[in-house]
Design a protein that fits this description.
The structure holds two protein chains of two kinds. Chain A is α+β, with helices and mostly antiparallel strands. Among the domains of chain A are: 137 residues, Succinate dehydrogenase/fumarate reductase flavoprotein, catalytic domain (Flavocytochrome C3, Chain A, domain 1), CATH 3.90.700.10; 127 residues, Fumarate reductase/succinate dehydrogenase flavoprotein-like, C-terminal domain (Methane Monooxygenase Hydroxylase, Chain G, domain 1). Helix content of chain A is 37%, strand content 14%. Chain A contains 16 helices and 19 strands. Chain A has a five-stranded parallel sheet with strand order 5-2-1-9-17, with helices on both faces. In chain A, strands 11-15-14-12-13 form a five-stranded antiparallel sheet. In chain A, α3 packs parallel to α11. Chain B is of the alpha+beta class. Chain B folds into two domains: 109 residues, Beta-grasp domain (Ubiquitin-like (UB roll), Roll); 130 residues, Fumarate Reductase Iron-sulfur Protein, Chain B, domain 2 (Orthogonal Bundle). In chain B, 35% of the residues lie in helices and 11% in strands. In chain B, the strands form two sheets. A five-stranded mixed sheet of chain B has the order 2-1-5-3-4. A two-stranded antiparallel ribbon of chain B has the order 6-7. The model of chain B has no long low-confidence stretch (mean pLDDT 95). The chains are: A alpha+beta, B alpha+beta. The interface between A and B is large, with 81 and 77 residues.
Chain lengths: 637, 256
């Protein structure tokens, strides 16, 4: 398939302005004739649904949680970037654009990233006006900090709860539209299928999680803001309910899935304690500003921290990357932690952890100084581990956190299915192969507040959409197939639970398709995942009935999709014979273990097309060109 | 650790519920409370029985989805944590633990320990926002906010909407939840424009949903996982009183 991103012409800084002018408009009185479905109520979904409602469209907003306010954007801690340059340290839209393209290891579209940087300032204005309580200084103005290794302070934050406060802002805007009648909300609904009629996305089938009943909704466009697929690793910092299913349903209906191998492993998470572990908790990487990361120099060292003298400690990031030290990008920090643990230098009961030590910071700033900066994180760590990080170093280990891949979209955020738009983490767009800290919140809100509301109008104005109804044959057929699948799951009566399969899949993904990947491991995963999937459909036990509140069935349905999706992730990782950003192929590294990109052969977006059950997905390539930011090797030495 | 659990089973809102006793062995003190329940449910399913239904999602104490009354206390015995952040080291080997849903007429049970909290969404719909359309905001730096006020607004905005305050209250009052949102917005200049209308409308909706009144026992404050204090209820009462006297279009039963 030829992938046309529909990138507007002109100079990089004029493209978005020009595109907004060239997009056809929908007359204000005609907007109410269009019905739009938005699935997901995180930053992207809630901001889109609220903004579309304000414009006068009829909006239906769906989420699987009991309230739109609970979407997992709420858990983002660190902050949100914007090129305000309030700190007068030389930031600009162009610098934010440049840093994001480079941070993404040159695997993002320049035009998209520039637009993101352009929108960043409006996001801050919008959120402040909504009452988002960003951190302020004593003059009453907004405070900024440097985050994730950037050289300028462009990150706005709301203590360690930035995602929560931004989401509540968007949620409140959404509730305002609900009160006005322009948006209807449908909580506790789990999407089961995307309905495509005459080649266009025209509605969805959802399962009402309270009654178990299937419900169909027709619309003129369907927007998926359904988050990432990090839970394919079983353990991740995602919410337990986060899933790939809506994206996977769209993929099976013809939307291409781009770059699934770009997964971000966050370096500062609390380590696993045992098999019972159900999720991992991230601690803001701002901790790396003052904490020093080390392991004992001697492999297998079981001495307690106070018994290990300074000269027997290996501050591996400081030694290997003297200019960035502990502040190297996430992928570099994560890979190095894995490497020292693989070499037997890991600490703690499981030996899969490294120390993050605040001893020096406490000497420099005092306990009060450290507590003022990181008090809530220290408290969280203590609650979970029962250890006092003021006295003993924290133990940290990387965990799956964010996924840069997602459904392929053009510049208008439309997938390869006309009328199916994809926003936020669910699309593949702006982060390339690696997302920078504090950029996810920016992208979700840019897509929802400032991009989709314009581009969707261009879609509606450009054509005539036939009238469809939720009682049409296509919906009835989708409901029938969904019901067959649910009944199939309930009829297996096997011996292993859904979690056991999910955990095993996660284990394969983490070991073979995780931080370090190689050909043999990936080929092994491509063999084992289908075997596991086959066993799942023969031997899983799912209890209860389909016409009832049934959490077991919900999760079985999601795990079934992860068992298919995991294979595509591994396939993409195998095909991409280079190391870039969140994708590290062990065959492609320098002598001292740094990632080696192959710009001659892999400077493209790899997008996969579904070819039926048992068929081999087909790869299409969207070449990436860099007219403004020149291709260089990332170096943090 | 080996534990005896008495867990609430209820088919749906219309059915009568009852406690079911389950014994569980080999629980690690490092497990979270919900991970312990995962183990219970795995064990139930292996025996061909449906697991207990309970709400949960982020499992890091911020989404507000988890909602269990544990030994009579919403979110259990630990201070300022949600159920998902409660760890088993807070219990002893041999303990009996009683697990129930939030109990309030305004939060009907859906199944077992899962309740319907959409009343909270409707209270926010009544006015828990600043009326600002996308792209009509002035530059962020044109709205300075004194730091102490910004901090107080933030303390209130930390509410996760879990409903523990309601579950803790003998009157099922939602005053702490409503006060948190009213205060968050009225401390900020952005929220002052609509402050009177907001407090009247949100309180009216709260009453309409069937939540009870506040009788100053402060159980809500003790149960709140985010440490939101009853000072905000006092603030809301002041705002409410002021608004009833000075707001032109007051109020009950009338469209706001």
């Amino acid at each position: 398939m030829i992938l046309d991103a529909h990138i507007p012409g002109g100079n990089i800084s004029e493209k978005w302005t020009r595109h907004k002018f060239e997009l056809k408009l929908v007359n204000p009185t005609n907007k109410r004739k269009f019905k739009i479905i938005v699935v997901g109520t995180g930053l992207a979904g809630a901001s889109a649904a609220a903004s579309l409602g304000e414009l006068g469209y009829q909006v239906l907003s769906f989420c699987y949680q009991d309230s739109p306010r609970r979407a997992h954007s709420i858990a983002a801690q660190g902050g949100i970037n914007a090129a305000k340059n309030y700190t007068n340290d030389g930031d600009s839209v162009y610098r934010l654009f440049y840093d994001t393209v480079k941070g993404g290891d040159f695997r993002a579209r320049e035009a998209n990233v520039h637009r993101l940087a352009e929108c960043s300032n409006s996001i801050i204005d919008q959120c402040v006006a909504q009452g988002v309580p960003f951190g302020r200084d004593y003059g009453g103005l907004l405070a900024n900090r440097s985050f994730g290794g950037t050289q300028v302070s462009r990150t706005f934050y709301a203590r360690g709860q930035t995602g929560q406060q931004l989401l509540l802002g968007a949620y409140q805007a959404l509730m305002r539209q609900v009160a006005k009648g322009s948006v209807k909300i449908f909580p506790r609904r789990d999407m089961q299928d995307l309905v495509v009629i005459d080649g266009k996305a025209r509605g969805i089938v959802v399962r009402n999680l309270i009654t178990g009943k299937l419900e169909s909704y027709e619309a003129d466009a369907v927007c998926l803001a359904t988050g990432g697929y990090g839970n394919v690793f079983y353990l991740s910092t995602n919410a337990k309910g986060s899933n790939v299913s809506p994206a996977w349903q769209a993929y099976k209906k013809g939307a291409l899935f781009a770059n699934p191998c770009y997964t971000q492993i966050h370096p500062t998470c609390i380590p696993v304690t045992g098999d019972h572990q159900s999720k991992l908790t991230l601690m803001s990487e701002s901790l790396r500003n003052d904490g020093r990361i080390w392991v004992p120099k001697k492999a297998g060292d079981t001495r307690s921290v106070d018994q290990i003298p300074e000269n027997e400690r290996y501050y591996y990031l400081e030694e290997r990357y003297p200019s960035f030290g502990n502040l190297v990008p996430r992928d570099v920090a994560s890979r190095n932690a894995k490497m020292v643990c693989d070499n037997g230098m890991g600490v703690g009961a499981t030996k899969r952890a490294v120390y993050l030590d605040f001893g020096d910071a406490i000497k420099r700033l005092g306990v009060g100084g450290v507590s003022a900066k990181y008090g809530n994180l220290f408290q969280m760590y203590q609650k979970i581990t029962d250890e006092d990080p003021y006295k003993v170093p924290m133990r940290i280990y990387p965990a799956s956190h964010y996924t840069m891949g997602g459904l392929w979209v053009d510049y208008n955020l439309m997938s390869t299915i006309p009328g199916c738009f994809v926003l936020g983490e669910a699309n593949f767009s702006d982060h390339g192969a690696n997302r920078l800290g504090a950029s996810a919140l920016m992208q979700g809100l840019a897509d929802g507040y400032f991009v989709l509301p314009y581009t969707i109008g261009g879609y509606f104005a450009g054509q005539k959409l036939e009238k469809v109804s939720a009682s049409d044959a296509a919906f009835i057929e989708a409901e029938k197939q969904t019901m067959e699948r649910l009944n199939k799951l309930l009829g297996i009566h096997g011996k292993r639970t859904v979690s056991e399969f999910h955990r095993e899949l996660g284990h394969i993904m983490w070991e073979d398709v995780g931080m370090g990947r190689n050909k043999a491991g990936l080929e092994d995963a491509l063999k084992r995942i289908p075997e596991l999937r086959e066993e799942f459909w023969k031997n899983v036990t799912v209890l209860g009935s389909e016409g009832d509140f049934n959490q077991n069935l919900e999760s079985a349905n999601h795990v079934a999709d992860f068992l298919e999706f995991g294979e595509l992730l591994a396939r993409d990782a195998l095909h991409r014979e280079e190391s870039c950003g969140g994708h590290f192929r062990e065959e492609h590294q320098t002598a001292d273990g740094e990632a080696m990109r192959d710009d001659n052969n892999f400077c493209y977006v790899g997008a996969w097309e579904y070819k039926g059950e048992g068929g081999v997905p087909e790869l299409s390539k969207e070449p990436l060109t860099f007219d403004n930011v020149h291709l260089v090797t990332r170096s943090y030495k | 650790m080996n534990l005896t659990l008495k867990i609430w089973r209820q088919k749906d809102a219309k059915s009568k519920g009852q406690f079911e006793t389950v014994r569980i062995e080999g629980i690690s003190p490092d497990m979270s409370f919900l991970e312990m329940l995962d183990v219970v449910n795995e064990q139930q399913m292996k025996q061909g029985k449906e697991g207990f239904a309970f709400d949960h999602d982020c499992r890091e104490g911020i989404c507000g989805m988890c909602s269990l009354v544990i030994n009579g206390m919403p979110h259990g015995p630990d201070y300022a944590v949600t159920t998902c952040q409660l760890h088993m080291r807070k219990f002893k080997d041999g303990d009996t633990i009683v697990i129930e849903p939030w109990r309030s007429a305004a939060f009907p049970v859906i199944k077992d320990c899962v309740v319907n909290r959409s009343a909270f969404d409707r209270i926010i719909q009544a006015g828990g926002y600043v009326s600002i359309n996308t792209n009509s905001a002035p530059d962020a730096a044109t709205i300075p906010v004194p730091k102490d006020q910004a901090d107080r607004a933030f303390d209130a905005a930390a509410c996760i909407g879990c409903g523990a305050c309601v579950a803790a209250c003998k009157n099922s009052s939602a005053m702490l939840f409503v006060a948190a949102k009213v205060s968050h917005l009225s401390f900020l200049p952005q929220g002052k424009v609509e402050a009177k209308k907001r407090v009247l409308a949100m309180v009216a909706q709260m009453d309409k949903e069937g939540f009870g009144n506040c009788t100053n026992l402060y159980e809500c404050q003790a149960a709140c996982p985010k440490g939101i204090t009853v000072d905000y209820i006092a603030k809301m009462n002041r705002e409410y009183l002021g608004a009833t006297i000075t707001y032109a279009e007051k109020v009950y039963g009338k469209e706001l």
